[in-house]
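Appendix B. Chain record.
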Amino acid sequence: MSTRGGALDAAPEVGAGVGGREAARLPVVVHVLALGTFLMGTTEFVVAGLLPEMAGDLHVGVARTGLLITVFALGMIIGAPLMAMLTLRLPRRLTLMLALAAFTLGHVVVALGSSFVLLLGARFLTAVATGAFWAVANVVAARVAGPAASSRALGVVGSGAMLANVVGVPLGAFAGQAMGWRGPFWALAVLGAGCIVFIARHVPQDGPSRQTVSIRSELTAVRSGRLWLALAACATTTGGVLATYSYISPLLTDRAHLAAGIVPLVLVGFGVGALAGFLVGGRLGDVHPHATTVVAPAVTTALLLGICLLSAFSVPVIVLVALLGLFGLGANPVLISLAVRFADKAPTLGSALTVSAFNFGTAIGTWAAGMALDSSLGSTGPAAVGTVVAALTLIPTITIALLHRRDRAGTVVGGAADAADPGTAHAGYPAR
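Structure tokens predicted for this chain:
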């Protein structure tokens, strides 16, 4: 299906069918959006691999240089919902292009800048642009794919960020060591500018059926209790996994007694697992949304507990970390899809709030994990924190599943003739 010049809201529904029908191929635009999230996932974490080089060149301590990561997370938390509201009346394709333009400009400033304060400002600008892009990209991907394949499309879009951890961040760190830390930022600026061309070519125009709503109408979405349940699950599932992942190196070297040179390979295993989990979770979520959002965090909790208990054994820990990548973030595309649906007439705001929720969970989870690392728990502390946080995900996801079961039971009692198709049952959720 060609999307060039087409209408976004008029896109036909494609995706996984039921009764054994083969899933239709996703539109090209979904993969173009995944390229954008790949660039943005790379820039979010590439600084971690360049901290010593940046600190030395800027004459700033390594710990203070780490603020370049913190300010990025802050920009994502604030920027995603803020930009979703400010760009409410703009065409979605234009919003994506403007976000990429700001992304490119931010990287040029970082690549040229010598003032640490200027770099902080540029990173914040880049994060705001990233939040805006991600929020709108999720809505566009879900719309062009249709309700039957929305979770799968969101899984592909999100897999760009997962692939960034496997390919983008390691390549950025290697390039930074080979040609100086400014090199990766120049590369990201060039790639960001090139991505604008792909967005202009492949993202369809908004269809005539798209309604222009006021900011007041958009804010009515926050009254949805189910939206907040989905956002809570977004925060806890990501916070639990990344609380452990962010401090996995001390556990691998101090407790499992792995050589430092093996640690990057273990992290690549996590990244490959996360990429596969995002894609598989998106596919399963289109058919079994509630099973996916309940089973994935339940298995994640068990895996994190296993890491705590078996941290002294190298082979089991390596396997558990890879499986953590597979299951830990697998429910995320489904949760994004649910949040967009629960937001009803404000899908962009709903999507933006998931971006904020993911980053909020990451910030809180990693902060608590850092405290635990300095406690008597030592290197197993972050995994213990992650276990508790991940287990909390089951509260909102089970609640959402029970509410949906109640709604379906009420529909059956009421004698409704149009019972939901099993493959798209979550498409008709009320937004309350």
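Further analysis of this model is presented in Appendix C.
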